[in-house]
Amino acid sequence: MSDQFIFTRYRTDCYHCKQIADQIIKAVPYKAEVACDNCGATRVFIPRIEDVTQPGTFTKIGCYDVWNLQKTADCRNCHVNGFHDITIGCRHFTVRCRNCGFTHFYKFDLEYMAKDELNVGRENTPASEHQPM
After folding, report:
1. In 35-101, alpha helices (H)
2. Contact (Cβ atoms closer than 8 angstroms) between residue 82 and residue 98
3. Does the pLDDT at position 133 exceed 80?
4. Are 51 and 105 a contacting pair, CB within 8 Å?
5. Cα 122–123–125 angle (5° rounding)?
6. Residue 51 is inside which H or E element, if any?
7. With 50 as the cut, is the pLDDT of residue 84 above it?
8. Which residues have C-beta within 8 Å of that of residue 126, sequence separation ≥ 6?
9. Looking at residue 101, what DSSP letter applies?
10. Does position 5 have pLDDT exceeding 60, yes or no?
11. Which of 3, 75, 98, 102 is packed most tightly, with the most Cβ within 10 A?
């Protein structure tokens, strides 16, 4: 099983640039990130706990709209490739397996600006072509 757990996009208005843009969502066991494809504003979340519990148990209301998404992925607990519920707020990020209930809870840790750090859509382009002139 690879370290890549969840990788998806969600199109909405960015909290930083206020533009409608894809928000690139990536979750691996050791961190989760949400990055704006337009301005590069990135929120980093670090793991807090993993648990098998009911959905929404760790979800707190935050300062932005809460995103409730779903994505197919391999579960680290039951190893079934199935739907996972993803809940993202301004200070939390949870991923829950619908098959076994295993939940990853991440808390907000860091925010920074880094346009194109993920090189989305440019995987086959040499890094030297991404540098500003």
Report:
1. none
2. yes
3. no
4. yes
5. 65
6. strand 41-52
7. yes
8. none
9. -
10. yes
11. 75
